[in-house]
Amino acid sequence: MSNYAQFTKTFELETYGIKNAKVHYQLSPEELHDIAIENGQAVEASSGALAVNTGEFTGRSPKDRFIVKDDITKDRIWWGDVNIPFDTDKFDKLYDKVVDYLSGKTLFVRDSYACADENYKLNIRVINEFPWSNQFAYNMFLRPTEAELENFTPEWTIVNAPSFMAVPDKDGTRQHNFAILNFTKKIALIGGTGYTGEIKKGIFSALNFILPVFKNTLPMHCSANVGKDGGDTAIFFGLSGTGKTTLSTDPNRSLIGDDEHGWTEENSVFNFEGGCYAKVINLDKDHEPEIFSAIKKGAILENVILDENGHVNFADTSITQNTRVSYPIDHIENIRKPSIGKNPKNIFFLTADAFGVLPPISKLTPSQAAYHFISGYTAKVAGTEAGVVEPTPSFSACFGGAPFMPLHPSKYAEMLSKKMIDANVNVWLVNTGWTGGPYGGVGTRMKLKYTRAMINAVLNGDLGLYSYDKYHIHSVFGVAQPRECPGVPTKVLSPRATWNDDEAYYKTAFKLTNAFRENFKKFEAHCSEEIRRGGPQRYAF
Questions:
Q1: One Gene Ontology cellular component annotation (predicted)?
Q2: Could you tell me how far CA 221 lies from the centroid of its own chain?
């Protein structure tokens, strides 16, 4: 006989259309951990963390993310392949089918909130079919106190039913899985997928509409940390594999958050979340000790391979390369409480340039920053995707934020550019990728110790203001690269100097600038002339 029934609280879901459900409300992570194991849905790793398999989907499914097109959204959303419209009537019918499916089941309900700044707080109620999905919500959202729960009124509701399969011909979906936002009813409806990232990204997407449209606040897909005095917030944008989480988790600075933040009118930065959701592929204790140590009781490992003793093989990608861990932010020792920073001073755009032609660090003007923000460049290398055999440019607007951005990327870029100017913030493009040549040839990956030294030089003020004596304007990309940096060999700072063939370097550099221009064509009509001029201006002949 299970011993967790004693924790069940009286909580009705009839107002949501869910009838006769057995509801477990606000269970502790320890209780949810035990239930998942008891139900055969998870195992415990040697670290004490819960290990789950999310099933068919081990990542998001962007083509199955929809937004209901109604009076609130029809004239505001950037409709297209990213934001796919969904009919109101079809949503209502699908919602009724989902809640009917959940009726009579054992469900797990959690009240939580997003946004660490009280002025922007968003109360959330999460209704989960699985206990470990509810534990994920505990980890990733902010946790109310008992006093706050007494009079808790949810503003948004997440209904999460991984085992419910839609019928595309009848339900209006593309296939059996779906994640749908309804801004009028304030519901995120998720079904047919066990991937927990859909839960957190649903609310992130909602905030990416709510904050800029109604609160003049810039939402950002970034990590952030702050110095010991609390007044020099640093923001890190970067796509997967660029070092965003690694570089922002710094023992000498306090972590605000690792993924989703807002930048307010008052010039403060706040974390949306109460936890971290980090990739663990090839996780190494020596290189990322803070993340490694965070994997303990209360954390949830997704789609990893365990040996017979429960030890994780972080190099094993037989299920997916997108192996993950979620944990409450307090699993990291050096965190900012509350998760708010004042006065952003520096922004880092991280890119893993596999062509080896971008400077390891360069300073951007506001127009260049807006251009590179919209572009969101990094590169794919062999082995990351089927069919990729050589470096391939990869662009994701807003540095990976575009899949969750309901407005046109230029709207967020214009907000960023204005905030840069108003707050006198410096923006730096940092290449954590290759130097000396491209990936797969004579080039080598930029040493982490050099990248950390460059980041630290910026934060310490060692790189100073732009001047001809201190900076060189790159002849192809037009960015200002420093001539010297403490802890970094001078030759490393010039990408051309690290190559042994000038002609090959420039040929490769122009190849990349042409890829930038080709990608930017789809944004040009929405961008100002100033932003358009922020890109590479030289053309190959």
A1: cytosol
A2: 5
